[in-house]
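Hey, can you fold this one?
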Amino acid sequence: MNRNSMSQFCLCGFACCMAVGTTMAQTGAPAKPKETAEVALTQQRPATAAETAIQRAADANKYIFLFFFRATDDATKVARTTLDAELLKLADRATTTAVNISDAQEKELVKKYGLDRAPMPLVLAVSPLGAVTRSFPGKFTEADLLTAFVSVGMEKCLKGLQDRKIVTICVQNEETEQNAGAMKGVNELVTDKEFAGTIQIVTIDPADKNELSLLKQFKVDPKTKVAETVLLAPPGTVVGNFVGDTTKEVLVAAVKSAAKGCDPKSGCCPPKAPTAGAPAPKTDVVENKS
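Sure. Predicted structure:
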């Protein structure tokens, strides 16, 4: 049973809208990344200082706060000093590195996050999985930085959406009913050739207190007695909340509905597939109001 209609929402302040210039084919399946010579060349080149810092943080299971700047003016100096001081208190959970967006060696990283024209300075919080969880333009406090740390479930959702995938949040545990039936449609969707490689499954235990915020955001009762499935489409659209059994046909219909029914003026919906040779569309950074 599909419990709610399609709705738009923003995840963790950065809202997946950042650097997720996602495209959706008319079939409703997310466009699959193309392997190009440029991509292959990028993968073969030596890692930059910032990329190395990001990898080290991931290896240590820490967040990294990327401090992007253009000039060394007073505002930049104050922001950098504040960030370094606050992160000393969070050293067991996070690290930081600075990135000059004018540095030619870091142009791929700047391009990845779509920051070439963004106001500076700007801080991006990146999780161990590589998901951007928050952005902090200008001034910020320790309390602000703490909002970047999200649950494992939310981290996986963000990563999946930012990788241009459809995310299926499967809320179930040993106590919930219809677990197998709820997974039936999901598993069929994963093996469907049309959606091959474009589905990210995130399993959430409703009894996990660390995921209460995620469950609340998607309007799932943590005391649910029946398995539930929440379907998300890039860049952050809830296209369905299904209680109990699911079928591939119902899930596919929900995804296609999201591709057709979105208002492009909202700035937070999948754009149409671009024509050959056209640049990937960009989406806006949206702050979390909650």
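The chain has nine helices and nine strands. Let me know if you want another pass with a different chain boundary.
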